[in-house]
Design goal:
255 residues, nine-stranded mixed sheet
Length: 255
């Protein structure tokens, strides 16, 4: 078993480069990540969420380390390794202070992007650490975030009290960041989904039941079942966890 894991990691080492070059990947990586090839001129956004069997991503107190097990965490870090940028909201930074780096697998760390509309996050947040990786904070026009001068600031117009996902993706694409991972939290992923700004959604289900706590997706309410989003989905086992790869391309809105 250990030899199989080592061999998979050895095969994985060249996957990020091959994906960026548009090449076919060895299995199981083609099935998992082949759909994330970008088409010429079209940015691609992937949402990611790890949750319990009953759809929770944290306990009522907000504790979430770790719902995903080793296989789920490795999948998340592989996603980070193949994208140009990883995006999180200010709430995730406050709650989890994530590093947003590739640590569990081989690969290059992505550009770190934090959405902070009010500019209230401290410069000491680990997402802003000066470790040689480019960092970006996205905020409202007229706001000056509390970050160091080497963190790029993108100021966008306020759209009904929030920053528009489409505008965020356009701003990142203009900087050459075309494959983007929307990692969290649930409010941010839900906003991108309800705005039609996700091409894929990866939901990793862990074999646990919390019974209460923070739910994963929170979308506008519907009245009837025929209004529910029904999307093509592939299922992949990840150890004792299960990945649901949801194809949202038919719902994707582009400028």
């Amino acid at each position: 078993m250990q030899d199989a894991v080592v061999d998979m990691n050895r095969v994985w080492a060249d996957v990020p480069r091959r994906l960026r070059a548009g090449e076919m990947l060895p299995e199981p990586w083609e099935s998992l990540f082949g759909p994330l090839r970008t088409q010429t001129g079209k940015p691609l956004a992937i949402g990611q969420m790890g949750q319990s069997l009953d759809g929770r991503i944290a306990t009522p107190s907000g504790h979430s380390h770790y719902i995903s097990g080793p296989a789920g965490l490795a999948h998340l870090h592989r996603l980070r390794a193949i994208v140009d940028a990883v995006v999180v909201g200010a709430g995730t930074v406050r709650a989890d202070d994530p590093q947003l780096t590739v640590r569990h697998v081989s690969g290059t760390n992505p550009v770190r992007v934090v959405i902070d509309p009010r500019g209230t996050l401290p410069a000491t947040a680990r997402a802003f650490s000066a470790d040689g990786i480019h960092r970006i904070v996205i905020t409202r026009e007229g706001i000056r975030p509390q970050v160091s001068d080497d963190v790029e600031t993108i100021a966008l117009p306020d759209a009904e009290g929030r920053l528009g996902p489409a505008a965020i993706l356009c701003a990142l694409s203009a900087r050459g960041l075309r494959r983007v991972l929307i990692e969290g939290g649930s409010r941010t992923v839900s906003h991108f989904l309800s705005s039609g700004c996700l091409d894929r959604l990866h939901i990793v289900m862990a074999p646990m039941i919390l019974g209460s706590g923070v739910t994963g997706l929170n979308l506008p309410p519907i009245a009837r079942m025929n209004e529910a989003l029904r999307v093509p989905t592939k299922v992949h086992p990840l150890g004792d966890e299960v990945l649901f790869d949801c194809d949202l391309s038919a719902l994707r809105k582009r400028p």
